[in-house]
Sequence to fold (158 residues):
Amino acid sequence: MNKLLSLILILPLFLTAEEVISLDLSYSIPIDPYYCDNNPPECEPLPSILPKFDIQEGVTQSQWTLFWTLQALDIYTTAEAVKYDCIVEINPLLPARPSYQQLILTKGIILVPTLLRKNNFYDLRHKELDRSNFMQTIVVSNNFYLLNDAKQKCNKIR
Fold:
């Protein structure tokens, strides 16, 4: 009895899948490269239950370094340029001839809370900080141009 039971248990191990069950797995339908063109409803993609996620490039350390360097240069060039009689500050939040302290305080009040804000609804993105740095580069370049022009053509009042 034990030999018969052993034979029944071991015999299937020596057989292959084709010997146990005969399956025809061949694909006899010719492949039609224009099938979806001829049968559009059958080729529509199934709706996805997963939301689409945009992968955003994060802000880099070099972008932040450039950002804060441009802010410091803006303060420096503005403070130095308003020392000449032909240059006045056009920012309506500042007096016509602001001091370093007024410039730093204004930048701090505007920038620090905005940039330190962290929540799930909005995080600063790579492209946004690039755009901000680009605009600030134009501002600083203009300040340097005005400062150099004022050094040549205007009188220093402070």
The chain has a mean pLDDT of 83. Residues 61-117+125-153 form one domain. Helices lie at 2-14, 17-20, 35-38, 61-81, 100-116, 126-153.
